[in-house]
Design a protein that fits this description.
The chain is globular, with a radius of gyration of 21 Å. The longest helix is centred in the first third of the chain and has 24 residues. 45% of the residues lie in helices and 13% in strands. It is α/β, with parallel strands linked by helices and 332 residues long. Strands 3-2-1-4-5-6-7-8 form an eight-stranded mixed sheet, with helices on both faces. Strand 7 and strand 8 form a beta hairpin. It has one domain: Rossmann fold. It contains eleven helices and eight strands. Bound molecules: NADP nicotinamide-adenine-dinucleotide phosphate. NADP nicotinamide-adenine-dinucleotide phosphate binds next to helix 2.
């Protein structure tokens, strides 16, 4: 059968489908948070701000007038991103500071330097995250996923609590994940020794994030420090960069399938900006927000006794109360 202008018909059909997919992706991603909301005179610390969701959140805070400290492990990458942010937002109060969440020493040094430089902290965003395919351990011997995603942030937040309280009203925003629903806290062996199930390790770390939020919020009641957990949803970032599936040819088949339903990092970051700046969340005590809507986390994430148990173990493992002071010599 002869179809008139077949090439044109095919091109039009492809263009229309691509357009429809883009519109679907846009609608699925959801609207951005209030573009007018400002962050002038606010000081923000955000971990893992050199790429992905953290980078876009740092950009948003800078654009809205905040002083932003990017707490990153790789200063070269951080500096490159910082320069882009400063050029694009015209906000020169954006700084890179070394903070490797896989090292309690690095975290303590970051906090020590921060307190010497900066009297205030209004918004702490615990954003950095890893999903590692191989068994790796942190400098202190913790399984890497739990070490970075939970224990590192646990220590960082606790060491900054006095500054957060003095700067109240202030907020702690914790970037969680719906993967917490598949998580179990392995009380017998938090490091999950010998396990090869990285998805289970990630899920445990994200459940730990929410249990931390629960207990932190309880401890911070009446202090003026709000605590909010957010889930950015499936976002097109480099989080899975080291997973074998994403490093092989399989990626070229999987990626197009997920592309329409993945948020851009800019849209993924909106939940952080919402949690940090929406006046309605100023007294939030540990609620969980998905797509800027309050949502119930899993029952395990609301387990009060487990939250307390994990807090005590995290305190012990990170030696939170053992060295409150950092030796001058180790300060950068
Ligand atoms: N993407 C999603 O679909 C999704 C969904 C739900 C929740 N999340 C959560 O969103 C957060 C941000 O992830 P993303 O998707 O933006 O991933 P990403 O693009 O891989 O960014 C992760 C950030 O964490 C940093 N990081 C990793 N290990 C670190 C360490 N030891 N010390 C300091 N920083 C470290 C990375 O720094 P380097 O560049 O130096 O590695 C990077 O800046 C994570 O907490 C993740 O669990 C993501």
């Amino acid at each position: 059968m002869w179809i008139p202008n077949l090439p044109i018909t095919i091109v039009s059909a492809v263009a229309a489908s691509a357009g429809a997919l883009c519109i679907f992706k846009d609608i699925h991603g959801g609207p951005p948070f209030d573009r007018e909301a400002r962050a002038d005179n606010k000081t923000v610390v955000i971990t893992g701000a050199n790429t992905g969701i953290g980078k876009e959140a740092a950009w948003e805070f800078a654009k809205r007038g905040a002083k932003v400290f990017m707490a990153c492990r790789d200063m070269e990458k951080c500096e490159k991103t910082r320069k882009d942010i400063v050029l694009e937002t015209h906000n020169k109060y954006v700084y890179c500071r070394p903070c490797d969440l896989a090292s309690t020493k690095s975290i303590r040094e970051f906090v020590h330097r921060y307190k010497q430089e900066e009297p205030h902290l209004h918004i702490l965003v615990n954003n950095a995250g890893v999903l590692e395919p191989k068994e790796k351990i942190t400098q202190d011997g913790f399984e890497m996923t739990l070490g970075v995603n939970h224990l590192g942030h646990f220590l960082l937040t606790n060491l900054l609590l006095d500054t957060l309280k003095e700067s109240a009203p202030s907020r702690v925003v914790v970037v969680a994940d719906s993967a917490h629903k598949r998580g179990t806290i392995h009380t017998e062996d938090l490091n999950m020794t010998g396990s090869k199930d990285k998805a289970a390790m990630y899920a445990q770390s994200k459940l730990a994030n929410l249990l931390f939020v629960r207990e932190l919020a309880r401890r911070l009641l009446e202090t003026g420090v709000a605590v909010v957990a957010v889930d950015p949803g499936l976002t097109d970032t480099t989080l899975t960069r080291n997973m074998p599936m994403m490093r092989s040819i399989t990626r070229f088949f999987i990626y197009p399938l997920f592309w329409p339903v993945m948020k851009t990092p800019k849209i993924g970051a909106q939940v952080i900006v919402h949690a940090a700046l929406d006046p309605k969340l100023a007294t939030c005590a540990g609620d969980y927000y998905v797509d800027m809507k309050k949502t119930d986390p899993s029952a395990s994430a609301q387990d009060f006794e487990m939250a307390q148990w994990l807090w005590k173990v995290s305190e012990k493992w990170t030696k939170l109360n053992e060295h409150k002071q950092i030796p001058q010599a180790s300060a950068a």
